[in-house]
Amino acid sequence: MLTSDFIQAAAHAAGFDACGVAPLAKLPEDVLRSFCEWLQHGHHAGMRYMERHLQKRADPRLLLKGGARTAVVALVSYKPLRRQPPHLPQVSCYAYGQDYHEALKQKLRNLLAALQAEHPALQGRPFVDTAPLQERYLAVEAGLGWLGKNGMLTGKELGSYTFIGTLLLSDEVKGNAQPQKNRCGSCTRCMDACPTKAILDNGRVNSRRCLSYRTIERYANPLQDGEESEESMVKDEKTGVPSYIFGCDICQEVCPWNRRAKVVAHAEMQMLPQLLTLTAEDWLAMSDDDFEKIFGQSPIRRATLQGMKENVRATIRLP
Ligand code: SF4
Ligand code: SF4
Q1: In this structure, are 159 and 231 located in the same domain?
Q2: Alpha carbon of 85 to ligand 1 centroid (Å)
Q3: What are the residues facing 23 on neighbouring strands?
Q4: Which of 82, 183, 210, 267 has an alpha carbon 20 to 30 Å from 252's alpha carbon atom?
Protein backbone atom coordinates (compact mmCIF):
# COMPACT_ATOMS: atom_id res chain seq x y z
CA MET A 1 0.00 0.00 0.00
CA LEU A 2 1.21 3.51 -0.80
CA THR A 3 2.30 5.56 2.20
CA SER A 4 2.25 9.33 2.58
CA ASP A 5 5.97 9.25 3.52
CA PHE A 6 6.80 7.59 0.20
CA ILE A 7 4.64 10.10 -1.73
CA GLN A 8 6.18 13.09 0.05
CA ALA A 9 9.71 11.87 -0.68
CA ALA A 10 8.78 11.32 -4.35
CA ALA A 11 7.21 14.81 -4.49
CA HIS A 12 10.39 16.43 -3.20
CA ALA A 13 12.40 14.44 -5.75
CA ALA A 14 10.02 15.74 -8.45
CA GLY A 15 10.82 19.35 -7.45
CA PHE A 16 7.98 20.28 -5.09
CA ASP A 17 8.67 22.29 -1.94
CA ALA A 18 5.91 20.73 0.15
CA CYS A 19 3.43 17.90 -0.23
CA GLY A 20 0.51 16.53 1.74
CA VAL A 21 -1.99 13.73 1.31
CA ALA A 22 -5.71 13.68 2.11
CA PRO A 23 -8.40 11.02 1.68
CA LEU A 24 -11.16 12.13 -0.69
CA ALA A 25 -14.82 12.45 0.20
CA LYS A 26 -17.70 14.72 -0.68
CA LEU A 27 -17.04 18.36 0.18
CA PRO A 28 -18.45 19.20 3.61
CA GLU A 29 -21.83 20.92 3.31
CA ASP A 30 -20.63 24.20 4.81
CA VAL A 31 -17.74 24.44 2.30
CA LEU A 32 -20.04 23.81 -0.64
CA ARG A 33 -22.68 26.21 0.72
CA SER A 34 -20.09 28.96 1.13
CA PHE A 35 -18.96 28.47 -2.48
CA CYS A 36 -22.55 28.48 -3.81
CA GLU A 37 -23.38 31.68 -1.88
CA TRP A 38 -20.29 33.29 -3.36
CA LEU A 39 -21.59 32.36 -6.82
CA GLN A 40 -25.13 33.55 -6.05
CA HIS A 41 -23.82 36.97 -5.07
CA GLY A 42 -21.95 37.20 -8.37
CA HIS A 43 -18.60 37.45 -6.59
CA HIS A 44 -17.00 35.33 -9.32
CA ALA A 45 -17.57 38.29 -11.72
CA GLY A 46 -17.28 37.12 -15.34
CA MET A 47 -15.71 33.75 -14.48
CA ARG A 48 -18.81 31.79 -15.44
CA TYR A 49 -16.85 28.56 -15.82
CA MET A 50 -16.94 28.38 -12.02
CA GLU A 51 -20.67 27.75 -12.19
CA ARG A 52 -20.19 24.60 -14.26
CA HIS A 53 -19.65 20.99 -13.11
CA LEU A 54 -20.98 21.67 -9.64
CA GLN A 55 -21.59 17.94 -9.08
CA LYS A 56 -17.89 17.17 -9.60
CA ARG A 57 -16.87 20.13 -7.46
CA ALA A 58 -19.10 18.78 -4.69
CA ASP A 59 -17.56 15.32 -4.99
CA PRO A 60 -13.98 15.33 -6.33
CA ARG A 61 -13.93 11.52 -6.39
CA LEU A 62 -15.86 11.83 -9.69
CA LEU A 63 -12.91 13.52 -11.41
CA LEU A 64 -11.08 10.23 -12.00
CA LYS A 65 -12.53 7.44 -14.09
CA GLY A 66 -13.24 4.57 -11.74
CA GLY A 67 -13.23 6.96 -8.76
CA ALA A 68 -10.47 8.85 -6.96
CA ARG A 69 -9.73 7.97 -3.34
CA THR A 70 -6.82 10.24 -2.46
CA ALA A 71 -5.68 13.79 -3.17
CA VAL A 72 -1.96 14.48 -3.23
CA VAL A 73 -1.49 18.24 -2.96
CA ALA A 74 1.95 19.62 -3.78
CA LEU A 75 3.29 23.17 -3.58
CA VAL A 76 5.94 25.17 -5.40
CA SER A 77 7.05 28.43 -3.80
CA TYR A 78 7.26 31.59 -5.88
CA LYS A 79 8.31 34.05 -3.18
CA PRO A 80 10.70 36.18 -5.21
CA LEU A 81 14.38 36.78 -4.52
CA ARG A 82 13.96 40.41 -5.56
CA ARG A 83 11.17 42.81 -6.50
CA GLN A 84 10.51 45.19 -9.34
CA PRO A 85 11.62 48.76 -8.60
CA PRO A 86 8.57 50.33 -6.91
CA HIS A 87 8.31 53.30 -9.31
CA LEU A 88 7.57 50.98 -12.26
CA PRO A 89 4.14 49.55 -13.17
CA GLN A 90 3.89 46.46 -11.00
CA VAL A 91 3.24 42.86 -11.94
CA SER A 92 2.13 40.31 -9.34
CA CYS A 93 5.19 38.28 -8.43
CA TYR A 94 3.60 34.97 -9.47
CA ALA A 95 4.00 36.28 -13.03
CA TYR A 96 7.65 37.35 -12.77
CA GLY A 97 8.85 34.21 -14.55
CA GLN A 98 7.42 31.61 -16.90
CA ASP A 99 3.85 30.37 -16.92
CA TYR A 100 3.62 27.93 -14.02
CA HIS A 101 0.75 25.77 -15.30
CA GLU A 102 2.74 23.53 -17.63
CA ALA A 103 5.81 23.40 -15.35
CA LEU A 104 3.67 22.29 -12.41
CA LYS A 105 1.70 19.79 -14.46
CA GLN A 106 4.93 18.22 -15.70
CA LYS A 107 6.16 17.87 -12.12
CA LEU A 108 2.84 16.17 -11.22
CA ARG A 109 3.19 13.80 -14.19
CA ASN A 110 6.73 12.94 -13.07
CA LEU A 111 5.44 12.33 -9.55
CA LEU A 112 2.69 10.04 -10.86
CA ALA A 113 5.24 8.11 -12.94
CA ALA A 114 7.45 7.65 -9.85
CA LEU A 115 4.47 6.31 -7.86
CA GLN A 116 3.40 4.03 -10.71
CA ALA A 117 6.93 2.61 -10.93
CA GLU A 118 6.30 1.12 -7.47
CA HIS A 119 2.55 0.52 -7.91
CA PRO A 120 1.87 -0.24 -11.60
CA ALA A 121 -1.92 -0.52 -11.20
CA LEU A 122 -2.20 2.97 -9.72
CA GLN A 123 -4.26 5.46 -11.73
CA GLY A 124 -3.90 9.20 -11.36
CA ARG A 125 -4.82 12.55 -12.84
CA PRO A 126 -2.98 15.86 -12.39
CA PHE A 127 -4.72 19.24 -12.04
CA VAL A 128 -3.39 22.77 -11.97
CA ASP A 129 -6.16 25.39 -11.76
CA THR A 130 -8.16 23.86 -14.57
CA ALA A 131 -10.72 21.61 -12.93
CA PRO A 132 -13.80 22.15 -10.78
CA LEU A 133 -11.71 21.34 -7.73
CA GLN A 134 -11.52 23.16 -4.38
CA GLU A 135 -7.73 23.04 -4.40
CA ARG A 136 -7.16 25.28 -1.39
CA TYR A 137 -9.65 23.29 0.70
CA LEU A 138 -7.85 20.06 -0.24
CA ALA A 139 -4.48 21.66 0.56
CA VAL A 140 -5.74 22.50 4.03
CA GLU A 141 -7.06 18.93 4.45
CA ALA A 142 -3.63 17.67 3.36
CA GLY A 143 -2.00 19.55 6.25
CA LEU A 144 -0.25 22.19 4.13
CA GLY A 145 -1.60 25.27 5.91
CA TRP A 146 -4.82 27.12 6.54
CA LEU A 147 -7.14 29.38 4.59
CA GLY A 148 -6.08 32.96 5.35
CA LYS A 149 -8.64 35.74 5.63
CA ASN A 150 -7.58 36.83 2.14
CA GLY A 151 -8.58 33.40 0.81
CA MET A 152 -5.02 32.26 0.21
CA LEU A 153 -3.58 28.95 1.37
CA THR A 154 -1.12 30.11 4.05
CA GLY A 155 1.53 27.95 5.69
CA LYS A 156 4.09 28.36 8.46
CA GLU A 157 7.10 27.63 6.29
CA LEU A 158 6.20 28.87 2.78
CA GLY A 159 3.62 31.56 3.56
CA SER A 160 1.08 32.05 0.77
CA TYR A 161 3.32 32.65 -2.26
CA THR A 162 2.80 29.09 -3.50
CA PHE A 163 1.43 27.44 -6.62
CA ILE A 164 -0.83 24.47 -5.89
CA GLY A 165 -0.80 21.27 -7.92
CA THR A 166 -3.17 18.38 -7.19
CA LEU A 167 -2.81 14.74 -8.16
CA LEU A 168 -5.90 12.60 -7.68
CA LEU A 169 -5.12 8.92 -7.13
CA SER A 170 -7.21 5.78 -7.49
CA ASP A 171 -5.75 4.16 -4.35
CA GLU A 172 -6.03 4.75 -0.66
CA VAL A 173 -2.86 5.88 1.12
CA LYS A 174 -1.59 5.02 4.58
CA GLY A 175 -0.69 7.86 6.94
CA ASN A 176 -2.66 10.97 6.00
CA ALA A 177 -1.71 14.35 7.41
CA GLN A 178 -3.56 16.21 10.15
CA PRO A 179 -4.94 19.64 9.14
CA GLN A 180 -3.09 22.58 10.75
CA LYS A 181 -4.91 25.04 12.96
CA ASN A 182 -5.75 28.44 11.46
CA ARG A 183 -3.05 30.86 12.62
CA CYS A 184 -4.61 34.14 11.44
CA GLY A 185 -5.89 34.81 14.94
CA SER A 186 -7.11 38.39 15.39
CA CYS A 187 -4.94 39.71 12.54
CA THR A 188 -6.82 41.64 9.83
CA ARG A 189 -3.84 43.17 7.99
CA CYS A 190 -4.82 41.76 4.59
CA MET A 191 -8.40 43.07 4.89
CA ASP A 192 -7.22 46.48 6.08
CA ALA A 193 -4.62 46.80 3.30
CA CYS A 194 -6.82 45.78 0.37
CA PRO A 195 -7.21 49.00 -1.64
CA THR A 196 -10.59 48.04 -3.09
CA LYS A 197 -12.06 46.38 0.03
CA ALA A 198 -12.51 43.19 -1.94
CA ILE A 199 -12.01 40.75 0.94
CA LEU A 200 -15.28 39.44 2.35
CA ASP A 201 -15.61 37.06 5.28
CA ASN A 202 -14.74 33.39 5.52
CA GLY A 203 -11.69 33.60 3.22
CA ARG A 204 -13.79 34.80 0.31
CA VAL A 205 -12.95 37.59 -2.13
CA ASN A 206 -15.31 39.64 -4.27
CA SER A 207 -13.67 39.29 -7.69
CA ARG A 208 -15.59 42.27 -9.07
CA ARG A 209 -13.55 44.46 -6.76
CA CYS A 210 -10.29 42.50 -6.76
CA LEU A 211 -7.48 43.90 -8.90
CA SER A 212 -6.49 40.40 -9.94
CA TYR A 213 -9.78 40.05 -11.79
CA ARG A 214 -9.81 43.68 -12.93
CA THR A 215 -6.34 43.51 -14.48
CA ILE A 216 -6.28 39.93 -15.81
CA GLU A 217 -9.39 37.81 -15.82
CA ARG A 218 -11.76 40.43 -17.12
CA TYR A 219 -9.98 40.21 -20.48
CA ALA A 220 -10.43 36.43 -20.63
CA ASN A 221 -13.78 36.31 -18.79
CA PRO A 222 -15.49 39.69 -19.15
CA LEU A 223 -18.62 40.75 -17.31
CA GLN A 224 -21.74 40.56 -19.45
CA ASP A 225 -23.51 43.61 -20.83
CA GLY A 226 -25.16 45.54 -18.04
CA GLU A 227 -22.95 44.03 -15.32
CA GLU A 228 -20.69 46.50 -13.59
CA SER A 229 -17.51 46.04 -11.65
CA GLU A 230 -17.73 47.68 -8.25
CA GLU A 231 -14.57 49.71 -8.15
CA SER A 232 -12.35 51.51 -10.59
CA MET A 233 -8.64 50.84 -10.76
CA VAL A 234 -6.39 52.16 -8.05
CA LYS A 235 -4.72 55.49 -8.72
CA ASP A 236 -1.35 55.25 -7.04
CA GLU A 237 -0.81 58.99 -6.59
CA LYS A 238 -3.94 59.24 -4.49
CA THR A 239 -3.68 56.16 -2.35
CA GLY A 240 0.04 55.61 -2.13
CA VAL A 241 -0.29 51.91 -2.99
CA PRO A 242 1.84 50.37 -5.73
CA SER A 243 0.24 50.66 -9.16
CA TYR A 244 -0.44 47.11 -10.26
CA ILE A 245 -1.01 46.52 -13.94
CA PHE A 246 -1.18 42.72 -13.69
CA GLY A 247 -2.65 41.08 -10.60
CA CYS A 248 -2.02 42.39 -7.10
CA ASP A 249 0.12 41.24 -4.15
CA ILE A 250 -0.98 43.77 -1.56
CA CYS A 251 -2.96 41.43 0.70
CA GLN A 252 -0.15 38.87 0.61
CA GLU A 253 2.65 41.38 1.03
CA VAL A 254 1.32 42.55 4.39
CA CYS A 255 0.80 39.03 5.74
CA PRO A 256 3.26 38.32 8.57
CA TRP A 257 3.56 34.71 7.44
CA ASN A 258 5.02 35.86 4.14
CA ARG A 259 7.61 38.06 5.81
CA ARG A 260 9.10 35.04 7.55
CA ALA A 261 8.50 32.56 4.67
CA LYS A 262 11.59 31.05 3.15
CA VAL A 263 12.59 31.77 -0.45
CA VAL A 264 13.15 28.82 -2.78
CA ALA A 265 14.79 30.08 -5.95
CA HIS A 266 13.28 27.96 -8.74
CA ALA A 267 14.94 28.75 -12.08
CA GLU A 268 11.64 29.03 -14.00
CA MET A 269 10.26 31.51 -11.44
CA GLN A 270 13.09 34.02 -11.85
CA MET A 271 12.11 37.48 -13.01
CA LEU A 272 12.18 38.36 -16.69
CA PRO A 273 14.91 41.05 -16.89
CA GLN A 274 12.59 43.42 -18.79
CA LEU A 275 10.38 43.76 -15.68
CA LEU A 276 13.27 45.61 -14.01
CA THR A 277 13.10 48.46 -16.52
CA LEU A 278 9.71 48.65 -18.30
CA THR A 279 8.12 52.04 -17.64
CA ALA A 280 4.52 53.05 -18.31
CA GLU A 281 5.66 54.72 -21.53
CA ASP A 282 7.48 51.53 -22.60
CA TRP A 283 4.32 49.50 -22.04
CA LEU A 284 2.20 51.92 -24.05
CA ALA A 285 4.69 51.90 -26.94
CA MET A 286 5.12 48.10 -27.00
CA SER A 287 4.46 46.32 -30.31
CA ASP A 288 2.68 42.98 -30.66
CA ASP A 289 5.99 41.41 -31.76
CA ASP A 290 7.85 42.66 -28.70
CA PHE A 291 5.03 41.55 -26.39
CA GLU A 292 5.18 38.06 -27.88
CA LYS A 293 8.98 37.99 -27.75
CA ILE A 294 9.16 39.06 -24.11
CA PHE A 295 5.98 37.54 -22.66
CA GLY A 296 5.26 34.61 -24.99
CA GLN A 297 5.93 32.10 -22.16
CA SER A 298 4.65 34.31 -19.35
CA PRO A 299 1.29 34.33 -17.51
CA ILE A 300 1.08 38.01 -18.53
CA ARG A 301 -0.02 37.07 -22.03
CA ARG A 302 -3.41 36.09 -20.55
CA ALA A 303 -4.27 39.80 -20.19
CA THR A 304 -3.26 40.50 -23.85
CA LEU A 305 -1.14 43.49 -24.88
CA GLN A 306 -4.26 45.59 -25.43
CA GLY A 307 -5.43 44.74 -21.91
CA MET A 308 -2.03 45.59 -20.41
CA LYS A 309 -2.08 48.96 -22.13
CA GLU A 310 -5.57 49.58 -20.77
CA ASN A 311 -4.32 48.68 -17.28
CA VAL A 312 -1.37 51.05 -17.61
CA ARG A 313 -3.64 53.90 -18.72
CA ALA A 314 -5.96 53.23 -15.79
CA THR A 315 -3.26 53.24 -13.14
CA ILE A 316 -0.75 55.86 -14.25
CA ARG A 317 -1.38 59.49 -15.08
CA LEU A 318 1.14 60.37 -17.72
CA PRO A 319 2.35 63.97 -17.82
S1 SF4 B 1 -5.33 40.85 -4.58
FE2 SF4 B 1 -5.34 43.10 -4.15
S3 SF4 B 1 -7.40 43.78 -4.70
FE4 SF4 B 1 -7.48 41.53 -4.55
S5 SF4 B 1 -8.12 41.09 -2.46
FE6 SF4 B 1 -5.87 41.14 -2.41
S7 SF4 B 1 -5.33 43.26 -1.92
FE8 SF4 B 1 -7.47 43.24 -2.55
S1 SF4 C 1 -2.62 39.07 6.87
FE2 SF4 C 1 -3.27 38.25 8.84
S3 SF4 C 1 -5.45 37.75 8.56
FE4 SF4 C 1 -4.56 38.01 6.52
S5 SF4 C 1 -3.97 35.93 5.88
FE6 SF4 C 1 -2.15 36.86 6.84
S7 SF4 C 1 -2.28 36.24 9.02
FE8 SF4 C 1 -4.29 35.88 8.11
Answers
A1: no
A2: 20
A3: 70
A4: 267
